[in-house]
Every structure is written in C-alpha cells, then in structure tokens.
C-alpha cells in the first residue's frame, strides 16, 4: 500500500525512507485494527504526507498516527 502511494507522491523517497514509512504503516494498521481499503489508503497518504512535511522520526510518526 505504501509503495502505491509513493508512486503518486511528488517527492521520490529512498529505500530506507520507504522501509520506515512501511513499518509505521504496518504498526498503525495493527494497533488501530484497520481493515478497509479506504482506511488503509487514507493512512498510507497520511504517513507519506507527514514524512514529506518533516516528521522523519519513526517514533514521532507513530505517535502522530496512532
């Protein structure tokens, strides 16, 4: 899911950045028990948007999105 959102993003992310965003996405999905595609897509967009706007710390992203 994260990779498809990144393809639409304006800024290209490196492999390590994608991996960080994917870890955050997976963790939030698990904690919040997100099951619908719509919710997953929204979360993926929020992860990428937050990362691109300066929230680059994994812990900070998790706190923001959980």
What does this entry look like structurally?
- By secondary structure, the chain is mainly α.
- The chain has one domain.
- Helix content is 74%, strand content 0%.
- The protein has four helices and no strands.
- Helix 2 crosses helix 3 (37-52) and helix 2 (15-32) packs parallel to helix 4.
- The model has no long low-confidence stretch (mean pLDDT 90).
Instruction: Please bin the fraction of helical residues.
Output: over 70%
Largest sheet: none
Total domains: 1
Mean pLDDT: 90
Distance between the termini: 18 Å
Please work out how many helical segments DSSP would assign: 4
Q: Would you count the extended β strands for me?
A: 0
Return residue spans where pLDDT drops below 50 for at least 5 consecutive residues: none
Give a quick summary of the entry:
This protein is mostly helical and 66 residues long. It has helices at 2-8, 15-32, 37-52, 58-65.
Labels describing this entry:
single chain, 66 residues, mainly alpha, 4 helices
What's the topology here?
Layout: H1 2-8, H2 15-32, H3 37-52, H4 58-65
